[in-house]
Automatic annotation (TrEMBL):
Residues 57-163 form the Aldehyde oxidase/xanthine dehydrogenase a/b hammerhead domain. InterPro entries: Ald_Oxase/Xan_DH_a/b, Ald_Oxase/Xan_DH_a/b_sf, Ald_Oxase/xanthine_DH-like, AldOxase/xan_DH_MoCoBD1, AldOxase/xan_DH_MoCoBD2, AldOxase/xan_DH_Mopterin-bd_sf. Pfam families: Ald_Xan_dh_C (PF01315), MoCoBD_1 (PF02738), MoCoBD_2 (PF20256). SUPFAM superfamilies: CO dehydrogenase molybdoprotein N-domain-like, Molybdenum cofactor-binding domain. This is Molybdopterin-dependent oxidoreductase.
Amino acid sequence: MSGQDAATATTTTTTTMTMATLNVGADGDGDGGGEQQRPVRGIGVSVPSADTRAKTEGTFPYAADLWAEGLLWAAVLRSPHAHARIRSIDTSAAAEMPGVRAVITHADVPGATTHGRRIADRPVFAHDVVRHHGEPIAAVAADHPDTARLAAAAIAVEYELLDAVTDPEQSFGAAPLHPDGNLIRHIPLRYGDPEVTGEVVVEGLYRIGRQDPAPIGAEAGLAVPRPDGGVELYTASTDPHTDRDLAAACFGLDPDRVRVVVTGVPGATADREDPAFQLPLGLLALRTGCPVKLAATREESFLGHAHRHPTLLRYRHHADAEGRLVKVEAQILMDAGAYADASAESLAAAVAFACGPYVVPHAFVEGWAVRTNNPPSGHVRGEGAMQVCAAYEGQMDKLAAALGIDGAELRMRNVLATGDLLPTGQTVTCPAPVAELLRSVRDFPLPSLPKDAPEEEWLLPGGPEGAGEPGAVRRGVGYGVGMVHMLGAEGADEVSTATVKVVGGTATVICAAVDTGQGFATLARQIVQEVLGIDEVACAPVDTDQPPAGPSAHGRHTWVSGGAVERAAKMVRTQLLQPMAHKLGMSTELLQIQDGRITSYDGAFSMSVAEAIEGKELWATAQCRPHPTEPLDEHGQGDAFVGLAFCAIRAVVDVDIELGTVRVVELAVAQDVGRILNPRQLEARIEAGVTQGVGAALTENLRSVAGLVRHPDLTGYALPTSLDAPAVRIVRLVEERDVVAPFGAKAASAVPVVTTPAAVASAVRAATGRPVNRIPIRPSAAVAAP
């Protein structure tokens, strides 16, 4: 946030961010340069990430950099078809090639032949039928990566082509694609009176495309056999304990003989390291007795890992003459691809949030997740919530146009607040400052028009060298209001364990929470610094020898893992203070730790923390488990979510109404954050989420024809670049603490991803007068209506 932005923001948050910045030097090491300043530490300040320098200088060891003496290289043979019956697999030519050490197929899997993080419905290797383009069929280990790839290509597979089911609407009447059938889940939500109607009714049909998480680093791993017959997997896993249990079942081993070591995590906006990459590694290492490495190509990543669910949504909104919502009817159809993965959970979020952060007295929603022969779908940041947000916000724009009411005003008349009910019957008990967020972005000054600048300096839609003419450019302003749930849902046991050790003046945090870029490792350091007053805090590497902490999703590590670290640190604090308190004849509550010193309530006693811990070894282990939730019942009712987070965005776009090209000029963001734990880190998370949302809105769509992925690479799949990134104005961060969350903080990065596409589409509607019912927005949809 620039100095000008900081001056115009309206919360104490911005002041905190500015003050924290003063304590950090330009090189990010916290020395501030010039005169000596106190160390940057504790909750609420911008503590720099420990790996920032290594990642920016290119010295950070990613998973693709792993190495072991005598390693072999793996390659995986994948199906070139979306749907086919396998008549035969002949591996003899591959096995006879010089340098090839092993070739494995489904017949070589000693344990469970299917896997899945949620539902075990996915074969380790296809053996009777292939159900999507790129499904693994066999794997090879060889002494050189080129040899491994050539050997994989030499495996002869005889296929009988089958008709591919690629339209999810056709899945209902198609022959079963899987032994479990084509329907993964159906949720009928019933809330209120089905006979109620409104004075004004608007309908819409919306389509959301297939967004790829496009991880920055290559998906890679190394498997090393152990002397006891087990195996160690070195990967950039986001959920190591689940991956360990899944791998052990497929390897036919007890879980304690499989160890997953998390290494080289480059960042993630979805589930990283598809098990279809990890499992062949371990199997090949066990077969050969040698370390085996696999680094997936970008094409393999596009074909193998999970994508955002393509979704078809039909809506009918009823409102009274004043614009207040009366009833929402919706049908939501999610394309899961060939296997279930996270589709049941994604559908639950979509159905529960189908009406958005608005008060709706009557709601009737039908949701389905179905199998097809399309690429696999699964957990991607904001799953379920993003798809419905684009649709219900499109409906709000239609209602505003039908009633002749300003779009922001219509939304203001319907916003949700604490104490209101969701259509699932759950009461919103957490802070829900939706009206405040929307008001903040609505009232923020609009960017100036470029009318006074020379035409050759205009930033036209289509880039600096765009073919458009300034006279064809129209500016539009639109709004999006979104919501997401935090932690798991529907009865998921959200628990995390952490240990804090203090030895020789240095604290170590041991917790299996994987930092995928959300900043947990930095937060854990801040928590221990805040509670114990110790400057030197490190996080131990993550592996499955540690107690489980669960997956890195839905902001859960800030909540449950951060909460576990805080509890463990407070237990160590009590161990440290008890002897002093006993000598002083007072309780530990009358001693405080601040600025590296321990002082009594009356100021009579004071000692540095460094002196107090000298020669001591202290440690404690603690767990954090939030209050339980429950599954949605047969009518879509239930207290399914632990907490909610909200965001409002105003988008300003320029559209060339002749060419249909769009440039996002500015996105003004107001977000409900609970409490700011690290200002700079929070700002970066919001800006990254907004940018991902811009990609979903305008460019990102993994296209397939008859189930075959077209251009599975970063030239055919268009990620937003720095030239596409708009000005992001964080105009309001509402710090209204959630009392049931540790520190009162809320998830930060998912809700701007959810909200941005809806806001951009709203602005394009305002500029063109077109309905814009497809995400990403096609140029034909951005051409002005005649």
